[in-house]
Amino acid sequence: MDMLIIRGGIPLAGNVRLAGAKNASLPIMAASIAVSGLSQLRRVPHLADVSTLTQVLESLGAVVTRDLSTGELTITPPHATTGIADYDLVRRMRASVCVLGPLLARWGKAVVSLPGGCNIGHRPIDLHLKGLVALGARIRIERGYVHAEATRLHGAEIYLGGPFGSTVTGTANIMTAASLARGITRISAAACEPEIVDLGNYLNAAGARITGHGTPVIEIEGVDELHGVEHEVIPDRIEAGTMMIAAAATCGDVLIEDAQPRHLSAVIDILRQIGVTIEPSSTNDGRTGLHVSGAAYLNPADCTALPYPGVPTDLQAQLTALLCLVPGISVITDKVFPDRFMHVPELLRMGAQIRREGASAIIAGPAHLSGTNVMASDLRASAALVIAALAAEGESVIRRVYHLDRGYEKHDEKLRQLGAQIQRTTDHPEALPESLRMTGESTMEQHKIEEISSRFTPPFQNQPTKPHFLSDGYSIARPMVSQSDDSSGPVVDL
Ligand code: UD1
């Protein structure tokens, strides 16, 4: 297992190019099983999740190849299939459930394991099943598997809203299945995410008749067959947002190539409220993107993660890490996954002051984050810990980075290109940096001092007394992180 060692305090600078979107690639790859010809997909990122779905597709009889010179992924659909997506694969990645609709529509049968538990909260698939039943599927759950059957699906009116909004992969499942159903399907309360638009564009290029994708009402006129298709996956807006937040947290200056402002309007808006400068820009070779520059003066924020076009839940943890550095009280609420706060205890270990209240985290800043050992619990939490470590004083070690590798292509390499001191190594006690080895007496003493002093400075004791939030323009200096002149590491100027 790998771990990352990060020396914080270095402003990120330079250009970074986005990979293709993971959350667009996965449902498109899954939909390829419903297509009768080849799917030639460009810009599919090299990720653990893509490898897992590749294995699922291969287990269903598809042939998946990647051309290493162009990066193109080609999927040849099966001639025949068992229709069984096994627990051992599905439990590794929930998005495997995206094969359910395509299998059922094309092959009349699907046996797909229920995904099981998830670190970011309860994630049922009841809306997926409700939609498929409306399309005429017979569904039973037996021994942890969904068994779905249908001779030919038929069009239907389907409402896909749930207690937390719509469902992204549920919309993908139903939209793909309805593409091969007899008649017209109308999905209302459909997910509007750009990844759904990308899937709709892929299916339309394969001969589907879909309109309204990207709005809450999608209409699909079923066709008898989908044919082979070439498609380029959209750039990853969550990687873009993560890099924007990392630039802001390190007071950096970064051009994020291929970032699509229209996919990121809520993120741009909240970061601008916080005080980050973001401008559309382009490179010498004509690539467009977003130029992000951090600032020494940042404002606290009251921010809520919502379905698209709101601030994505997939950036909530990273924003939490940024807001720890901002003077004043910030509030971040997650209305999509109200329990998605596994990053909070790890941020507390780095010195953050955060109190969890239901679906919200209340953050008192600025925290003087200091490097320490932390453990990644899930994909976006690991990205948040990387951001906190980049902004912290001293060295941090982030363990279980396989979570990060699920969804970010070459994240550490890209950050290194931007000047970060970040090193990947095998997780082994010997590999721990000297500063984090708790063996010496002086370190024990230091621990004791910290423990005692923390009794007198409980979190939130030192909150600013001024009424917070931003409408009054409240804004004070945050710690400027800069490199020291000597070799003893970075210093933090207050
Ligand atoms: C997708 C994304 C994930 C992102 C999430 C929300 C992919 C591969 N993953 O996940 O990165 O965090 O959208 O933007 O695209 N729900 C139900 N019943 C259902 C389905 C969902 O109640 O049948 C609830 C979920 O528990 C959650 C909310 O609806 O509270 C949204 O979930 P959903 O959009 O389905 O997430 P995913 O598609 O799994």
Explain this structure to me?
By secondary structure, the chain is of the alpha+beta class. It is about 30% helix and about 25% strand. The protein contains 15 helices and 28 strands. The strands form 8 sheets. The chain has a 4-stranded mixed β-sheet with strand order 23-24-1-25, covered by helices on one side. Helix 5 (about 125-135) runs parallel beside helix 6 (about 170-180), helix 6 (about 170-180) packs parallel to helix 7 and helix 8 (about 235-250) packs parallel to helix 12. Uridine-diphosphate-N-acetylglucosamine binds near residues 94, 124, 126 and 128.
Total domains: 2
Q: Bound small molecules, which ones?
A: uridine-diphosphate-N-acetylglucosamine
Query: Order of strands in the sheet with the most strands?
Result: 23-24-1-25
* C-alpha Rg (nearest Å): 24 Å
